[in-house]
Specification:
The chain is of the alpha/beta class. The protein is 38% helix and 21% strand. The strands form 7 sheets. A 7-stranded mixed β-sheet has the order 14-17-18-13-12-20-21, with helices on both faces. A 5-stranded parallel β-sheet has the order 9-8-7-10-11, with helices on both faces. Strands 1-5-4 form a 3-stranded mixed β-sheet, with helices on one face. Strand 8, helix 7 and strand 9 form a beta-alpha-beta unit. The structure holds nicotinamide-adenine-dinucleotide (NAD). The site of nicotinamide-adenine-dinucleotide has 30 residues, from helix 8 and helix 9.
């Protein structure tokens, strides 16, 4: 039960640093990059606040230089996962009882460290471990700080929401954490999401097990260390890298799993949902299932669109971070009449993109995350090359001799339902369908229905009547919709993020809509002068 005055102001977003040539932050970051690239970090599990070392380990390499090892990470097995559940449940009462303002102070302190002296540590580990360019890492780390600040503020907004009372009666709502532990499983592509998945529930008093992605484990470990340094009590978040299979078998099936906070692929979330459904009678509570999952995000242009920003949106939206943002553009619909101009611009811009090492600051795009992702991209490219339904506008090549490099690739497809127009690829490949100008309605309908996802989408048009028509036609095709802007780059507190259909439960990370999933309201009515009466006044005969 919070007992503080509610004093936290709505936060401001952390401003991004520029890393311009000659700037202090650029020099500091380069030094940190050289340091981290020159060492091999040994990563333990963290259970009940203690480091736990296991014999089962994985090596962590840089995707853009896949023989270069930067970390070795212990993996949890059945024994350690059981210990972590016990540690979380043992920490629960004290964490719940800690005054809300003291719990919050831990996370606000972590946010200040992230935007201050710890920024370079998280930026460098995200750049090297996840192959992000400096700008992509910077926006990721700034988002992590935003998640913490908006999370604390969002919790306060929930606690403030109280029922009305009448004379002699006090009604109040006690926002309890869930009665059990949270299982948080995170993806590789954002350090911020990794950090947020266990932390958002912890802000409102929950305890958690956190399974990071094996390809983001270095930056995620540094975040975990930071939380400990900021005073997070032992056992509140337990850091347990392990296989998905072990997590399913030993954690998701546990009767005290009260909530599941996930970001990753649709297939994994659906398998967990199924598992929970099959075991539903064995849980102490109905587990809350929150998942943000896959996407097939689109840019749809009308013939009144301004072609320069349209082409820029396709290039940035599709290729930044190698197309591995959940919001990345991976299909576009362009009317025939403007296609020649758009095509010229796409060819010109794509040819100018440097693909390479993130430590060279003129790099626009680095490597895809791992061999599996590289093989997926290669498969789509090879099949498109062999298909008479497709032609390459740009790219179409790949090279894994040093890193998992796939060139930025634009495929023009003759049909809007060709596989690369409808399936999530999660790499630097965008497919384009050029439609007859007089088939706008039909093409909008295809965009809405051809793929099962509904995460992000953008339209480009100058004609306002057309904008209204397109927005209506695509209302359920995304959770985040953009007009005359690219479909990526959502900012916490400005464009709350999440999708529907096969893209997730749309609980909008970093908002009260998400935080409210991690509390269970307890309604308390107190009578100050309780009545001894049995009979009601209407029962009188006089
Ligand atoms: P992934 O589904 O392969 O892995 C996500 C996490 O689930 C990892 O920690 C992984 O080890 C774990 N996992 C794998 N199999 C499991 C199993 N059987 N049981 C339990 N856990 C299991 O996803 P990824 O490759 O890390 O991330 C890319 C995916 O995430 C894309 O589909 C992308 O669209 C999605 N994503 C969505 C959003 C969003 O907000 N909607 C944000 C980021 C990423």
């Amino acid at each position: 039960m919070p007992n503080a005055y509610f004093t936290i102001k709505r936060p401001e977003n952390d401003p991004f640093k520029g890393y311009l040539p000659g700037s202090a932050e650029r020099a500091e970051l380069k030094e940190e990059l050289a340091k981290q690239a020159g060492q091999v970090v040994r990563i333990p599990l963290i259970i009940g606040g203690k480091e736990v070392w296991t014999d089962e380990t994985i090596t962590v390499t840089m995707p853009h230089d896949h023989q270069h090892v930067i970390a070795e990470c212990c993996m949890a097995g059945e024994k350690e996962l059981k210990q972590a559940i016990d540690a979380a449940l043992a920490a629960k009462d004290a964490w719940e009882a800690m005054p809300w303002e003291h719990r919050s102070a831990i996370f606000l302190k972590a946010a200040d460290m992230i935007t201050g002296p710890y920024r370079k540590v998280l930026n460098a580990s995200t750049m090297l471990g996840q192959s992000k360019t400096v700008f992509q890492a910077e926006i990721d780390i700034a988002e992590l700080a935003d998640f913490l600040r908006f999370g604390v503020w969002g919790a306060q907004e929930i606690f403030k929401e109280q029922p009305s009372s009448v004379d002699g009666i006090w009604n109040r709502q006690d926002y309890r954490p869930l009665d059990g532990f949270i299982c948080a499983i995170s993806p590789f592509n954002f350090t911020s999401i990794g950090g947020n998945l266990p932390t958002a529930p912890a802000i409102v008093g929950n305890v958690a097990l956190w399974k990071p992605s094996r390809t983001a484990v270095l930056s995620n470990y540094y975040y975990m260390k930071l939380l400990q340094w900021c005073g997070l009590p032992a056992g509140v978040i337990n850091f347990v890298p392990c296989t998905g299979g072990d997590m399913s078998k030993h954690v998701i099936s546990h009767p005290k799993m009260a909530g599941f906070h996930f970001t990753g692929s649709t297939a994994v979330f659906q398998s967990v949902w199924k598992q929970v459904g099959e075991n539903i009678a064995s849980y102490a509570n109905y587990p809350r299932l929150v998942g943000e999952t896959g996407g097939k995000d689109f840019i749809f242009a009308h013939n009144t669109a301004d072609v320069e920003p349209l082409a820029a949106a396709i290039v940035r939206g599709s290729f930044e971070f190698q197309g591995q943002k959940c919001s990345a553009c991976s299909r576009a619909f362009i009317p025939e009449s403007i296609w020649p101009q758009v095509e010229d611009l796409l060819k010109k811009h794509t040819a100018g993109l440097k693909v390479g090492d993130v430590q060279e600051f003129d790099t626009f795009m680095a490597a895809v995350i791992d061999k599996a992702s590289f093989e997926t991209c290669k498969g789509y490219i090879d099949r498109a090359a062999a298909s008479d339904e497709c032609e390459f506008v740009a790219g179409g090549t790949y090279d894994d001799s040093k890193g998992w490099f796939v060139q930025p690739t634009i495929i023009r497809c003759k049909t809007p339902t060709y596989e690369s127009m409808v399936k999530e690829i999660f790499g630097p490949i965008v497919s384009i369908y050029v439609y007859p100008d007089d088939k706008l309605d039909e093409t909008l309908a295809v965009c809405d229905s051809a793929s099962p996802y509904a995460l992000t989408g953008a339209i480009f048009a100058q004609d306002r009547e057309v904008i209204v028509k397109m927005e209506r036609a695509l209302r359920n095709a995304s959770g985040n919709f953009y007009i005359n802007d690219k479909c990526t780059g959502a900012i916490v507190g400005q464009q709350p993020f999440g999708g529907a259909r096969a893209s997730g439960t749309n609980d909008k990370a970093g908002t009260t809509l998400n935080m409210v999933r991690w509390v269970s309201a307890h309604t308390v009515k107190e009578a100050f002068c309780p009545s001894p009466a049995i009979a009601y006044p209407y029962m009188s005969e006089k």
